[in-house]
Amino acid sequence: MAGQEQNKNMDFILKSLLAGGVAGMCSKTAVAPLDRIKILLQAHNNHYKHLGLVRIYSAVVPINKSHSKKRQSINSSKWNSLGSQSHIGKLLSGACAGGTAVALTYPLDTIRARLAFQVTETYTGIVHTAEGGLRGLYRGFVPTLCGMIPYAGFSFYCFEMLKLLSMKYIPQFTCTPSSRNTGGLALTIPSKLLCGGFAGAIAQSIAYPMDVTRRRMQLAMMMPETHKFGFGMIQTLVTIYKENGIFHGLYRGMSINYLRAMPMVAVSFSVYELMKQTLDLDTGLKL
């Protein structure tokens, strides 16, 4: 019995990793052009630092050659099981997941940012971009972690709460019957996209200054005039604030970030929910 339980748990973990990986891949692919524009704005690339969103987009792009109407009633005990995880638990679940993910993938994020930031060919490939060793690749990791914990926590929490409220109060507009999903209902794809989009916007508003700090530190060594951003999180935050203030410094690029974050989180959570349903992950992990 113990062996069977362990096999079930391992199967659940592997399926969860697959679901999350596919969701992340789809969401990042969907917003890749917007992501590059955000990096150029955040790091004040000399070619684009005086341009707005529309002009940057026009400049960057050429460089980069029917559901059933039947609804099932849901009793209070089912909703109690759906909402049984505490608010703190939801926040911590998202924060732990986000922190773990960023720790494992941060060097690749640094490489991606360096490649996206360059306009002329500074780096010729992934290996060349990885100069500076682990210390260079993990530059900006502390502000990333400080930003990722509230971002991942609040995005997960907001999505789960919006999903719960939609399924509980307006299922006739947001849900479709499901024999496999907890409570007998599953959100429609448009509803998943809306819940994920709003969750992403809320979370990004809270964590954005740390994202700007991370980008400045990641790209500090690419130009002589940006070396001053490579000496620690607090110093980088203070320098950004003194030179550019809040809206043009710590929140620079927020407009494009909303355009990017809402579809990215919407696609991520929507694909993840679809993968969960496909892989029968709604039963949960038994310990």
TrEMBL record:
It is a multi-pass membrane protein. Keywords: Membrane, Mitochondrion, Mitochondrion inner membrane, Repeat, Transmembrane, Transport. GO terms for biological process: transmembrane transport. Pfam families: Mito_carr. It is found in: Mitochondrion inner membrane. GO terms for cellular component: mitochondrial inner membrane. The keyword Metal-binding does not apply. Solcar repeats lie at residues 85-165, 191-278. The keyword Ribonucleoprotein does not apply. Belongs to the mitochondrial carrier (TC 2.A.29) family. This is Uncharacterized protein. It comes from Nezara viridula. The lineage of its organism: Eukaryota, Metazoa, Ecdysozoa, Arthropoda, Hexapoda.
